[in-house]
Write a structure and sequence with these properties.
The complex is a heterodimer of chains A (about 280) and B (about 325). Chain A has about 280 residues and is α/β, with parallel strands linked by helices. Helices cover about 45% and strands about 10% of the residues of chain A. Chain B folds into 2 domains: about 5-165, Rossmann fold; about 185-310, Rossmann fold. Chain B contains 13 helices and 14 strands. Chain B has helices at about 5-15, 30-35, 35-40, 55-65, 75-85, 85-95, 120-125, 140-150, 200-215, 230-240, 255-270, 290-295, 300-310, and strands at about 5, 25, 45-50, 70-75, 100-105, 135, 155-160, 165, 185-190, 195, 220-225, 225-230, 245-250, 270-280. The radius of gyration of chain B is 19 Å and the shape is globular. The chains are: A alpha/beta (about 280), B alpha/beta (about 325).
Chain lengths: ~280, ~325
């Protein structure tokens, strides 16, 4: 990836963060912390890996993305809005009655959502089903990506789905863990330690990478490794180390911002920071 | 047709609807028991064993269905409807996906496996989910129709099937078994009371009606194989024309067929409703026949309940 491409992604991500804050502030509810931690991963996938657009989103051969950590819908919506799936200026309708932008992603409400998620552990399983469809039923080479949270790793179904992914040799299946280390009640390691996730994924039969989930060069390298992994018979697991609340100083690494909206003063401060970041990248 | 369990008819019907290449089948390590193995034999490339992980099986089925497939998934009713309950709700019914949960070994007649495996709550649970169609066929021929309808109709289905061999209810119809979603089958007319039954209780109801006839009581018998959407007109007519309804199901009396019929009766045409079924208790080990006798679910028990209710009408 050239420096210019990387800068473009950084600018896109800064705008995603700006819309996340705008939407959660206007909605007066939502999940800013985890949305900001997965923003760079989603930015990369929708700009450099998925090759989906409003025009080809019904193509049976399209690549698929499932946000298994469905509560981070504000980040996914911002990305989809900026990619033209709906009018980005509708972002303030997040969580409003009758809105396409439901509190958690609803596939029948918004074009571009591949699976309704929100109940943790189920998105990865649905994504696994899509990968089974590609490999065994349609016999086509589309890829399926899913992003999970580290708190979500505590759900039993995640491990059932991981087992199925390896059993069915889904080398078209890429699981990305947004490992921000925090969940509602505090630090993941204190609430219910998920242990050495890379070792566990390896033990389940996955090809693994551990990266900085905010470094586009590293995300790019890992996803390219995944693509090159086709034919190996091994599914792929990327542990992306991230910061909850990334990009907004007072939200960063603070579990208090899991599911809370900013007040007027906090909103103004976040906007000042993000607008400055956008301006610096636009130069 | 010889006596056949509805699960056996399910396996045969699956192999039949499998002629459509969009039909895919998942099981959770019970293919020999649920009879999805009959599909696997014919279409091994479209069969996936998901291991002993029923919730994951249902969500995987949902994922496959988003790719334009009609996905059947099976386990014992206790696991399909209760272990995987929230997956059925959130990953199948909420997104309105084309997944057919076909649950075998429902009710007490699982037999010797005992209470942990005797599902008595599934109809109550499944019929509350929006987008869901709930079917409970009474014999092999009707099961075939139910599976064909599920395969041909878009959307989530729950089909309740049994382990025990059952006699034909619709034998005389051959291949032309009357079957319409949302429309009950009236099997016998009568003026004194109506028995509304589903599943294995339909046969018991027909036998009970004969016993009642010998005592001068004319019972109407309705096969309410479609629990949702329920045939409101048939229930209203039964209330207005016979003035007494007895529901019969191999299920808790709360929430299932008895609950569904009572709701319609209360709202549209009040009359006395007596709910015949399992009453707030778990099952236990035993042969199916011994269990039906011990839990007072035989045709003689049903006739007795009907006779007493009629006496107090």
């Amino acid at each position: 990836m050239t420096q210019e491409e990387e800068k473009k992604l950084k600018l896109f991500a800064a705008n995603v963060r700006r819309w996340v804050i705008e939407a959660v502030y206007r909605a007066k509810s939502g999940h800013p912390g985890g949305s900001l931690s997965c923003t760079d991963i989603l930015t990369y996938l929708y700009n450099n890996a998925l090759e989906v657009s409003p025009e080809n989103i019904n193509d049976p051969k399209r690549n698929r993305f499932v946000l298994s950590k469905g509560h981070c819908a504000p980040a996914l919506y911002s990305v989809l809005g900026l990619k033209g799936f709906f009018d980005i200026n509708d972002m303030p309708k997040l969580r409003a009655l009758g809105s396409k932008l439901q509190g958690h992603p609803c596939m029948n409400e918004l074009k571009g959502i591949e699976m309704s998620t929100g109940s943790l552990g189920q998105g990865i399983a649905a994504a696994c089903g899509m990968a089974i469809n590609a490999k065994y039923l349609d016999k086509t080479d589309y890829k399926v990506y899913t992003v999970l949270g580290d708190g979500e790793m505590q759900e039993g179904e995640v491990w059932e789905a991981l087992m199925a992914g390896a059993h069915y040799k889904l080398d078209n299946f890429c699981v990305i863990l947004d490992k921000n280390g925090l969940q509602i009640d505090g630090k993941v390691e204190e609430v219910m330690n998920i242990g050495d996730i890379e070792a566990k994924a390896k033990a389940f039969g996955y090809e693994t990478r551990v990266i900085d989930g905010h470094d586009f060069q590293q995300i790019d390298a890992a996803v390219n490794d995944f693509k090159a992994n086709a034919g190996s018979g091994k599914p792929f697991f990327i542990v992306a180390k991230t910061h909850k609340g990334m990009g907004v100083s007072f939200m960063q690494d603070n579990p208090g911002w899991h599911g809370k909206n900013p007040n007027d003063e906090e909103y103004a401060k976040a906007v000042t920071e993000l607008d400055a970041a956008i301006k610096a990248l636009e130069v | 047709m010889a006596d056949m369990a509805t699960r056996e008819a399910y396996g045969k019907a699956l192999a039949e609807v499998g002629a459509d290449p969009k039909v895919v089948v998942l099981d959770a390590d019970l293919a020999g028991s649920t009879k999805t193995g009959d599909f696997k034999k014919v279409y091994p490339d479209r069969f996936f064993d998901m291991g002993i992980a029923e919730g994951n099986m249902v969500t995987t089925a949902a994922g496959i269905s988003t790719c334009g497939k009609t996905v059947f998934c099976s386990s014992f009713a206790i696991f399909a409807s209760e272990r995987a309950c929230e997956q059925v709700r959130n990953s199948v019914c909420y997104p309105n996906l084309n997944v057919k949960v076909c649950a075998t070994h429902a009710g007490l007649t699982v037999g010797e496996d005992g209470a942990s495996h005797q599902c008595l709550e599934d109809l109550a649970i499944m019929r509350t989910f929006p987008n869901m169609t709930v079917l409970c066929p009474s014999d092999a021929a009707q099961t075939r129709m139910a599976i064909k309808a599920a395969a041909e109709t878009y959307g989530p289905f729950y089909v309740r099937l049994g382990r025990m061999k059952v006699a034909d209810v619709y034998g005389e119809f051959g291949q032309d078994v009357p079957f319409q979603i949302g429309k009950a089958n009236q099997l016998k007319d009568g003026k004194d009371l109506t028995i509304i039954a589903c599943g294995i209780m339909v046969q018991e109801a027909l036998e009970a009606a004969e016993m009642l006839k010998a005592k001068g009581i004319e019972a109407r018998v309705i096969d309410m194989f479609c629990i949702k959407p329920i045939d409101r007109e048939a229930i209203i007519a039964a209330s207005k024309e016979t003035g007494l309804i007895v529901t019969a199901e191999e299920h808790m009396v709360s929430g299932g067929l008895g609950g569904a019929v009572s709701e319609v009766v209360c709202e549209e045409a009040p009359c006395k409703v007596v709910r015949f079924g399992v009453k707030d208790q778990f099952g236990q080990s035993g042969t199916p026949k011994a269990l039906l006798e011990a839990y007072k679910l035989t045709s003689a028990d049903l006739a007795d309940v009907c006779e007493k209710a009629f006496a107090n009408k």
